[in-house]
Fold this sequence. Notes:
CATH superfamily of the domain at 9-166: Hypothetical protein af1432
CATH class of the domain at 9-166: Mainly Alpha
Helix content: 40-55%
Largest sheet: 6 strands, mixed
Radius of gyration: 29 Å
Distance between the termini: 37 Å
Amino acid sequence: xxxxxxxxxxxxxxxxxxxxxxxxxxxxxxxxxxxxxxxxxxxxxxxxxxxxxxxxxxxxxxxxxxxxxxxxxxxxxxxxxxxxxxxxxxxxxxxxxxxxxxxxxxxxxxxxxxxxxxxxxxxxxxxxxxxxxxxxxxxxxxxxxxxxxxxxxxxxxxxxxxxxxxxxxxxxxxxxxxxxxxxxxxxxxxxxxxxxxxxxxxxxxxxxxxxxxxxxxxxxxxxxxxxxxxxxxxxxxxxxxxxxxxxxxxxxxxxxxxxxxxxxxxxxxxxxxxxxxxxxxxxxxxxxxxxxxxxxxxxxxxxxxxxxxxxxxxxxxxxxxxxxxxxxxxxxxxxxxxxxxxxxxxxxxxxxxxxxxxxxxxxxxxxxxxxxxxxxxxxxxxxxxxxxxxxxxxxxxxxxxxxxxxxxxxxxxxxxxxxxxxxxxxxxxxxxxxxxxxxxxxxxxxxxxxxxxxxxxxxxxxxxxxxxxxxxxxxxxxxxxxxxxxxxxxxxxxxxxxxxxxxxxxxxxxxxxxxxxxxxxxxxxxxxxxxxxxxxxxxxxxxxxxxxxxxxxxxxxxxxxxxxxxxxxxxxxxxxxxxxxxxxxxxxxxxxxxxxxxxxxxxxxxxxxxxxxxxxxxxxxxxxxxxxxxxxxxxxxxxxxxxxxxxxxxxxxxxxxxxxxxxxxxxxxxxxxxxxxxxxxxxxxxxxxxxxxxxxxxxxxxxxxxxxxxxxxxxxxxxxxxxxxxxxxxxxxxxxxxxxxxxxxxxxxxxx
Length: 752
């Protein structure tokens, strides 16, 4: 729909100018040096370059660069250089202007940032590469050149998410999944908390609109009760702080809708039982940074004089900030309503860094030659991963995600050097963190002067020494004892170096055998071989051949020829069209008419999931086992069949982020006769006859077919797992609700 169709050219021109004036006004109120002239030139240049071009929503394209520049300025805190680069960020990619043109008009620094942003968006990476993974790899490479490239990219993604409603459904799923999988954790790692939270909420809103609206409505309904509880809790604290003469601002911080939903899912709770919907945040004024710590602890003391402290949930991130620069003092106390309430204590400086991330550090930087920031330390870790990239794009994203989501511990070397590692890191992680050779030859560790195995998990404050031996040889199973991407990457590189001669030998054997038997060396044939021999990838296959652990024989010829399409029966090779891209694949022909090509996607890009007595046109993924009524998406597998995943399935998140062009928007279209397997978890207080009541309810009253039941009881508490065959999600929800009405049952929820 064209949202600007009713505007005259004059009105449209005024809309553009008003948006730019708002951007400029916010910049002039900031602490940055006032370089208005170059910003105005960048705006006019971009406006002319994008003249006549419109976004999918119908608005003039220039409104997007203005919005990105506004986010970079107001929400991240960047200055004139970044504002100009944001205004110009799509000029080189979408128009005839070059990076050299940008440099001629605006200088080398702005041109360098625009060039970095263009590199992230553009490029062709070959058939086997994942566009999203390669884009992300490029995004991280640009960090070492100028962090502002990444920060502007985050602003660009945020505006795209805010305007995602105008996109086709399959595009929305792809972009939302990619955002939740890649950009939200990256924003978290960069300390952009507000942006990270909004990206999560917007992704969730587009993937689960009904659940989003339901939680939103329940938040609004409970607002009066929450406000009363918060007032009862906060007023005594405010009186105490006023008596101490502390200047502060106190407010309730509501959990995001995505965070509430995650808690409901992981803890199997209804909305009404999520008690920590809000935390209290106290932000105090302090012009002397050296006094911040003392004020934080004086506020802590005032609160604990009033309320009972939860001893295990105090977090001091003042002395040792998080890797993203976050500083605060957190404590949890018992509120007047009997529920635990978290209180976050920050100075104004800490609060700005928490909300705006590393951009805010520049504002508070003192003197020259400061020690390397946590950001640069993290960039070095990322650079190390990129110098030794995973051959497979999916492995690359998974490996990197290990670091993006990590919480940190701090350990010390024998010389007293402080090292930050993810929580759960082992002696092996530290060994490879220090040096690849140390990792490859490590034999044990000394933690606090005590000899320990390599797989020993480290704790904050440990002093750790790594012991090595020249005769030690690294083993592939070491990867099971690692949590850091850096260690896994360095181990894999070292193992590849040891295995490479054997792999080369096996590769030559494979190529020769395929040629001798007139078989193509393509993805279908190799994938079939991997399945037959149960190996993970081509390198593993070639290594096993080179090491003479596997043998190629005539028994392989029939299945490989069939996989290559040389002996196909009932299978029609075709191209599956999704959006504007084509994905090579195969679709099983109908038994009624083997000459008719199946149509997996209709013109509106909504794929109907057909299931009745005659069969289905899809297959259910085992990782999440969705059923009719669930929010799902389709993924066109290598064999051309549409594989169905729940929208919030972790595997689906990876598929959306990595193979976005093969995602299909789907819709259930079943006749109710087809049955699907659902897993239900039940908990409660054990009593005589309760199991009989549950089974009678399911089999007799509801007429549902039970396939499996596992039950365990101890100390008057029972846990049961039940597998039933049902027609859709509504049947499962009804079953759970009725089961919870049985005396003694406290939990009855579906497990995906």
